[in-house]
Amino acid sequence: MACASTALIVGGGIAGLSAAVALARVGVQCDVVELADASGGASLALSGRATEALDELGVYDACHARSTPFAAGTTASHQRDAQGRLISEGPQRPQWPGAKTPLGIHRPVLLEILEEAAQRLGAKVYRGVTTQTTVEDDDGVSVAMTDGHHGRYDFVVAADGIGSRTRSRVFPEAPKPSYAGQFSFRWMLSGPPIDGEGWYIGPEGRLGFYHLPQDLIYVPAVIDLPEGAWLTDKDTLAHFARLLDSYTAPAVVELRRRLTPDADLIARPFEWILLAAPWHRGRTLLIGDAAHATTAHMGMGGGMAIEDAVVLAQCVATTTTPAQAFDAFMERRYTRVATVVETSVAMSRLEQEGAPTSRNMALASDAFKALAQPY
Ligand SMILES: Cc1cc2nc3c(=O)[nH]c(=O)nc-3n(C[C@H](O)[C@H](O)[C@H](O)COP(=O)(O)OP(=O)(O)OC[C@H]3O[C@@H](n4cnc5c(N)ncnc54)[C@H](O)[C@@H]3O)c2cc1C
């Protein structure tokens, strides 16, 4: 029997909704409070053991059906130069022996699948709501929500992302996230497919693209910008257009042709944080980006959030108190997640120093070997 019967989850993103599914599957009644009324965002790739974690949540097949599977040999991880000449091919053999096929999935689709699974298992998701006051005693946590309802829980899972307010409240001494020196740009567009999927590396920055179901194309890009840069929508479009203009590769020229002033572009600074262990205090545990956020160089932050959720539920199911469950969770998560945070930040640094891409690939390959172990 699980060591707890009720949990409040603050944040209904990848970590929070995965935790709701995982905990509900081991018999914990979960409430999720999520500030946003609806989920948005671009695409993300889920690879390695994260696909197994999705399977453990019972949602891998549903995700597979609505995503782009990246089998070994996919052109989506080829790298080309600004003229479109091939620099390197992606892995030709599965990088993660025994793992399920990696997926590229539109974030709102993933969140919809997770939310439906959580609700099917009895979790309640309150949108447009957060916590107002939280009072902890020896037996549990009493929480008042901003919509006026109250709840009593055995423990609280803070999955409220890199800007976590719960982290500021529970760990006031924790450092703020650090800027990594680069901005990410993400563009979702719809239209007919373009030949030449993969990454392009040029003097102004790096960009890539891959196709998603329903004629969607996802274009992520990375540009070095000084600390404190703040971009209006107009600046974002100008930076992005300048980046595309610096390429003569036919696929990028075609993307540039399709870029319109009302393009669905998201720009945000790459920030990172690795909270010192343990990520719990009293009856509150931080998971996902709230505890460990990083740059997207390895594309594994979301995967780590899903793994966190699965491991938490395993620990809750096999211990006798939340405190024991949290300790067991930390034992299994810290080193693994630190590998992702530190390797990603190191890759960002090397990229800014203009190091050859082979150095980044070697760093990533070492990290992937470690991460191929079970979570
Ligand atoms: C450019 C970019 C590309 C990426 N690509 C990939 C990729 O390809 N693969 C991958 O695995 N990862 C990728 N990541 C990382 C991934 O997006 C994150 O690691 C993941 O979203 C973390 O999930 P989370 O649920 O912890 O946090 P979030 O996704 O930030 O979700 C937090 C949720 O909490 C809610 N919230 C915030 N504050 C409160 C509050 N006070 N009360 C209630 N709710 C609150 C938010 O609205 C949000 O829904 C990428 C990240 C970036 C920036």
Offer a concise description of the structure.
The protein has 375 residues and is α+β, with helices and mostly antiparallel strands. It has 10 helices and 20 strands. The strands form 4 sheets. Strands 6-5-14-15-16-13-17-20 form an 8-stranded mixed β-sheet, sandwiched between helices. A 6-stranded mixed β-sheet has the order 8-2-1-12-19-18. Strands 3-7-4 form a 3-stranded antiparallel β-sheet.
The beta-strand count equals: 20
The radius of gyration is: 21 Å
- Regions with little confidence, pLDDT below 50 for 5+ residues: none
Chain oligomer state: single chain
Mean pLDDT: 96
Query: CATH superfamily of the largest domain, called what?
Result: FAD/NAD(P)-binding domain
Assign the CATH architecture of the largest domain. 3-Layer(bba) Sandwich
Helix coverage percent: 25-40%
Reading off the top of the CATH hierarchy, the class of the largest domain is best stated as: Alpha Beta
Distance between the termini: 22 Å
Major sheet summary line: 8 strands, mixed
List the ions, cofactors and other small molecules found in this model: flavin-adenine dinucleotide
